[in-house]
């Protein structure tokens, strides 16, 4: 039970750091993905394909 909770917290923290790092890297291109509950949930569950889909959605809505 505790292992599952630790794994979920680790995924959430990792996804926050990945989104933050991507924002740092892509800030020169004026690409910004906000760190909110929905985006963190997408990256936590889908991983890098979810992150790439968020970047793609940024370009579609821009």
In short:
This protein is mainly α. Helices cover 77% and strands 0% of the residues.
Protein described:
Helices cover 77% and strands 0% of the residues. It is mainly α. The protein has one domain (2-61). The termini are far apart. The model has no long low-confidence stretch (mean pLDDT 94).
Topology:
Elements lengths: L1 H24 L11 H10 L1 H14 L1
Helix pairs in contact: 1-2, 2-3
Oligomeric state as shown: single chain
Mean pLDDT rating: 94
> Termini, distance in Å?
43 Å
Number of helical stretches of at least 4 residues: 3
Number of domains: 1
Give helix % range.
over 70%
Quickly give the structural class: mainly alpha
Beta-strand content bin: under 5%
Sheet with most strands: none
Shape category? elongated
Q: Which segments are poorly predicted (pLDDT under 50) over 5 or more consecutive residues?
A: none
- Cα gyration radius (Å): 13 Å
N to C succession of SSEs = HHH
């Amino acid at each position: 039970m505790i292992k599952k909770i630790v794994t979920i917290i680790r995924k959430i923290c990792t996804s926050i750091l990945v989104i933050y790092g991507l924002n740092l890297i892509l800030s020169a291109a004026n690409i910004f993905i906000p760190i909110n509950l929905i985006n963190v949930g997408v990256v936590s569950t889908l991983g890098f394909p979810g992150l790439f889909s968020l970047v793609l959605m940024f370009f579609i809505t821009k």
